[in-house]
Queue: 3 jobs
Job 1
Amino acid sequence: MNVSTGGRRLLTRGATTALVCAILLSPAPGHAAPGEPDPRDGTSIEDIRAELDGLYREAEVATEAYNAANEKAAKQEKRLTTLRKDLTRAEKRVKDLRDLAGAAARTQYRGGDLAATGIQLLLGDHPDQALDEASQARQAMRGLVNVSETQKTAREELSDQTEAATKQLRELKSSRADKAAAKQKIEKKIATAERIEAGLEEEQTRRLAALERERARQAEARWTGPGGTPVGSGKGKGKGSAPGGGTQASGAAGKAVGFAMAQIGKPYVWGAVGPSSYDCSGLTSAAWAAAGHPIPRTSQAQWGGLTRVSLSSARPGDLIIYYNDATHVGMYIGGGQMVHAPRPGRSITTAPAASMPVLGVVRPGA
């Protein structure tokens, strides 16, 4: 073997070795979409957690928008059905009045005018018949006036009903468009989060779970802090038990808590209200409906429509509303714990009531 040949073989072997090393050392194909950071490129587990939280939060915000649009569309569809029935009745009434007006006109024509009737009384062979026809004529005249006025009113009502139905149809189409846009956003955010989670290595998944457990421990401590300090108050309310701790659920609240707890383990599915799956407000609304006290469907409507109580007086069955935009809700079960449907990919479970930023507490049936 000459030097040049040996040199080429050494170079070839060296290049092959370098290529193999490059393949072995390079990261495996990720699951992130183009333009999205691969969760295994050195990003800290805290940053990964923050990114996932952000994606699922955005999906939940869109879910509330979807639920609200869905509720609105359902009411609009019901209203439109009623309006269409009213419209049909109005159209029939106008037709009946038109027929009645024609009959009255024919009656008047047969009776003649009053002057002709007077001549018949003087010259006719049948004066009784002439008087009868005169009476019919006067009645027909009054009937024509009444029918004409009623026709005018009926046509106005028909016009109003037509306009109302047309407006309701436009609003329904708008709500359906909002619903479709929210659905698209939900699916996009969830898909992105799922790609990130699927791309995590086993060790990262383990560390992520450990981080969530630590956060839960800290959240529980925040709710039951020294002196029973309520979340976010910054001050103690005196020595004693934590807010709501030790209070037992009873009556309708007890039924609502029992229903919610019986759903533990069922999956979170956005837009779902049971019986096999729920989203956060779907669970709370279904629980209180089962207790005989229907409440609004969405967490935002629950926050806006139910009686608000102080955090320090929270008791089992009350609803804890989270985030400034009221886009998550859980049911307080006592002892600083709540039951809720967390997010896509998770099941209904209990968690510390201070797991998320608390907006306030509402009490159904109060």
Job 2
Amino acid sequence: MIVVGGEALIDLVPVAEPPGALLPRPGGGPYNTALALGRLGADVAFCSRVSADGFGEGLLSGLRAAGVDLSLVQRGPEPTTLAVPSLAPDGSAAYGFYTEGTADRLFTLPPSLPPGVRALALGTCSLVLEPGASAYEALLRRESRRGLLTLLDPNIRPALIADPAAYRKRFLGWLPYVSVLKLSQEDADWLGGRVEDWLAAGPSAVVLTRGAAGLTVRTAEGARYGAAARPVVVADTIGAGDTVNAALLHRLVGGGAGPVDWPAVLAFAAHAAALTCSRAGAEPPYAAELGLSR
């Protein structure tokens, strides 16, 4: 089983008609990652705190339909976090957030994860907003020490980070507990570090997404691989990076004990992300669309 921890929220996505209208869509980097894994047929559980309001019920319904295990989901009466993406002409998105007093940031550390868990993925707002951020950080450290494969996607949202210097320092403190660091070129530029230094701190691999320029990976052994982006008519890029997370985890956890075939892993991730970019909102592909059997 793969456990994905972090926020579930509602993206209020701009639509063309009527002017100024916003369409509520399920979102949140970890939520999208769990949804994508479920659609790929992975054994996946979502670990979060979700509102009992109508938005929260809808979020869980979407995960349930994808076959995601919800036994680690905590519930609360507080409202669901809202995110308002603004879309650039190329389909890329910037975000504003409404997070005050919302349910997901009140996540508490579960006493244990289910038997058979092989990987844990964390990232995005959940590692910024307290007090939940400290609980997720404790989860990362505990499960890494237990030997789980851990994937971290910082998925930087500058509007939520009040003290960038403190966040960058905290990020470096996570790296000894991270197996795979996945981040966008924009994240890397904002963090201001070097891949070589991040690898030296602990991860076995750093995967960098570059939009239309594709994906690359560098490993702790010094290997480098890349995959081209698949040509696609882009509706928007919402959820594309989260789909990459899911594709990486699907292949890394399901690939057996041998060496990682990174070119094949990256090509699979590029294909999955392209399909997500071809549709509005975070709509990751199903297994059949990628030639997989569930």
Job 3
Amino acid sequence: MTTNGGFEPVFCTIVPPHVLDTLAQAEDPALAGKARRTLEHDAFERTHRRMTAVLGAPALAPPKATAAEDKPNRTIHDARHKQELPGKKVRGEGDKPGKDATVNRAYAGLGATFELFLKAYRRNSINGDGLPLNATVHFGEDYNNAFWNGEQMVFGDGDGEIFLDFTIPVDVIGHELAHGVTQYTANLTYFGQPGALNEHMSDVFGSLIKQYTLGQTAAEADWLIGAGLLAPRVTGKALRSMKAPGTAYDDDVLGKDPQPATMDDYVRTGRDNGGVHINSGIPNHAFYLVANALGGHAWERAGQIWYEVLTGGELGSQASFTDFATLTVAKARASYGEGEELQAVTKGWEQVGVRTL
């Protein structure tokens, strides 16, 4: 298999459409209205990204390095609750923290993401060649999402009722930036199983960035995506759980977390680009099982295998779960021989019902 080789712009959000769809039907018109406005904007951005690809706009040509080999190049903008990007520049690389906690969290989160990829995987920024990291905060009014639009990060402030500020969880920042890593490497198609793998890779590296920042082992980590994002009124812990897919929330407004943990419960749907945020629970659970079996820091052996498969050139843009799993088994064998790493990877996929060739 070969990679796509292009840089197709993909619009990727942290809050899945199915969550916002449910929220948009809430009895409280204020909650429903904010969710609908978020969905409307997300649909606009998604169409804009698709048209950019169709028209062949050069926005995503691989940029030349502008950052030092071991230093990030961050710029934070403030949209001031408008929807025009990038907004007003409020902090550049090396500037001291200001009074706006959201700006400071975004700046720190971009730095944490840069550091993990550099220190753990020797990757210089998202594209491997010093790509500047740009982000916009305070986007829109009560905007209930954060997204990577193919070029930069964008964070909403949340509505304060269901979602809080989207810069609060560092794994949300890492998740979205990791979509950029996938974009510049395997470029996994954002639909069906390859789309679920795309989301899976972002959950993996989002979680690893949080664990790296906190200095946690696999056993110490909570394996939650978006912990701290849900407002106090919501019955739930996070958006997703890699350790126990399907248990992140069970709320009278948001509904129940629909993620399956194994192929026995694989969801076939035309919504959410073929269930990319739903079925990603299956490879997510496999990664957790592998990392937990190996112990220690998950960004080391387990993360190294996943990273090398994503970036190694053999993972096709249309890869299925079986394609990806097979490559992780081969990489574990090539890197570590017939030892515990190979056993952990093989057993992890077996436990979630994904076969390997």
